[in-house]
Amino acid sequence: TVAGKQLRPGSVRAAVAAGIGLAPEERKAQALLMTESVTRNVSVSSLSRFARIGWIDRGGERKAARSATRELQMRPDNPDAAVRTLSGGNQ
């Protein structure tokens, strides 16, 4: 249960919707798209949130990434930066 609500076991969608995430120890190899932007890395786990009839809402995707970089106090606060250019603590 999360916040008093039952989650369907094994449902990634339900876990993401409940705010649960996974940060593997080997995040560079297992979780990050190193040559992609912070924006793509933020949105890849929830593309259905930004996809409409085969198109991706890049504005919505970027807005979510900007919110994430500010909330996590990432440096630099630049959602367009390639993940490989970030310091280890920001990856």
Descriptive notes:
This protein has one domain (24-90). The chain starts with 11 loop residues before the first helix and ends in a 20-residue tail after the last helix. It is 33% helix and 4% strand. It has four helices and two strands. 9% of the residues are buried. By secondary structure, it is mostly helical. The chain has helices spanning 12-17, 27-30, 38-43, 58-71, and strands at residues 51-52, 55-56.
Core attributes:
91 residues, mainly alpha
pLDDT < 50 stretches: none
Helix content: 25-40%
Mean of pLDDT: 83
Q: Total strand count, please? A: 2
The helix/strand order is HHHEEH
Q: Supply Rg.
A: 14 Å
Structural class: mainly alpha
In order across it, which strands form the biggest sheet? 1-2
Strand residue percentage:
under 5%
**Which descriptor suits the 3D outline?**
globular
Number of helices: 4
Largest sheet: 2 strands, antiparallel
Whole-Å distance between the termini? 29 Å
Number of domains: 1
